[in-house]
Specification:
One of its GO terms (molecular function) is hydrolase activity. By secondary structure, the protein is of the alpha/beta class. The chain has a single domain, classed as 3-Layer(aba) Sandwich (Rossmann fold). The protein has eleven helices and eight strands. Helix 3 links the parallel strand 3 and strand 4. Helix 4 packs across helix 5. The longest helix has about 35 residues. It is elongated. The C terminus is likely disordered.
Length: about 325
């Protein structure tokens, strides 16, 4: 027994040390590869431009730091009621998203763009740069098209981009499909043994971005989503001031959702409700107190909209 005890006392520290070393290696690997995992379209070269339909326009933007981004515009076939800015998922072809939305939305101009490093766009993605790019695309398309209102639509990772845009610019509303409260929380649930909050570089805190915004938001979730667990979507919904629609597509996964007619019906209903609640042209606003905006914008590295696009003064009352 004494000999066995000595063996255990010798072996246990060695085993514990090996376990700790393996844990550290895995954690370091996840930290090192997180950009590839979060921005899979760039990290694993999964995204290419599949092409535009007849009548669509290829867009090109050059950012302040000299990166060329590619996008596309489909003009409304009926009199336009505004601009729909669509933000794709983390491994998604933005051209496909334009064709997908344009196949049934005919009374809004629709714009999509490839994130940095995705498909034909240059650069390397990160949260701060993608948010700045989204704001730039918004501002340039508003200047060009002069829409009555702007609605953001975000899909999966794109819901995080749309949420950040809503914090930075006045929108008429947002439609979030399979959204999360934060990428950090999704990663933390998937890797509970990793100190995610200490390591993550791109947390996409949609809960913080949408907190306190008097913004009409429609949410569409998949009740069998294994990529964004429904609990993460519900926690975001609980944080919204003005959810105008919450729709769960039963039996749908993160991907199969888009094949379901219930999804299109929910998206169309969300648009209808947002447009019904939209403020008159040039008075639309997501209300946010100045001190809250200042704190968020300092963290995100963003600026207020130009004076002619600022929220109505009543929004700061």
């Amino acid at each position: 027994m004494l000999a066995l005890a000595k063996i255990l006392l010798t072996a246990l520290p060695i085993a514990a040390g090996m376990f700790l070393a393996m844990w550290l290696l895995v954690v370091l690997a996840l930290w090192w590869q997180q950009d590839r995992l979060i921005f899979a379209g760039w990290g694993f070269r999964l995204v290419g431009a599949s092409g535009l339909a007849e009548g669509d326009e290829r867009l090109s933007f050059v950012t302040d730091d000299g990166v060329r981004l590619m996008g596309a515009l489909r003009r409304a076939r009926k009199p336009s009621r505004g601009l729909l800015l669509a933000f794709s998922g983390n491994a998604e072809d933005a051209d496909w998203r334009l064709r997908h939305l344009g196949s049934w939305i005919d009374d809004l101009d629709i714009v999509t763009f490839f994130y940095r490093g995705f498909g034909p766009s240059g650069g390397v993605p990160d949260q701060a740069a993608i948010v700045r790019d989204a704001i730039m695309v918004h501002d340039r398309m508003v200047e060009r098209l002069r829409p009555e209102r702007v609605i953001a639509a975000g899909f999966s990772l794109g819901s995080g981009v749309a949420a950040q845009l809503a914090r930075a610019r006045p929108l008429a509303g947002a439609i979030l499909v399979t959204p999360f409260d934060s990428v950090a929380a999704v990663a933390g649930a998937r890797y509970p043994w990793v100190p995610v909050n200490w390591l993550i570089r791109h947390p996409f805190r949609s809960d913080e971005a949408l907190a306190g915004l008097d913004l009409p938001v429609a949410v569409i979730g998949a009740d069998r989503d294994r990529v964004v667990p429904p609990e993460r979507t519900r926690l975001l919904i609980a944080n919204l001031m003005r959810p105008v629609l919450v729709s769960w597509i039963e039996g749908a996964s993160h991907v199969s959702l888009y094949e379901r007619p219930e999804y299109r019906a929910a998206f169309s209903e969300g648009l209808r409700r947002i447009l019904a609640e939209a403020a008159p042209p040039r008075r639309q606003t997501a209300r946010l107190r100045p001190e809250a905006w200042a704190a968020w914008s300092a963290a995100a590295g963003c600026r207020r909209a130009p004076a002619h696009r600022r929220p109505h003064p009543e929004a700061d009352a």
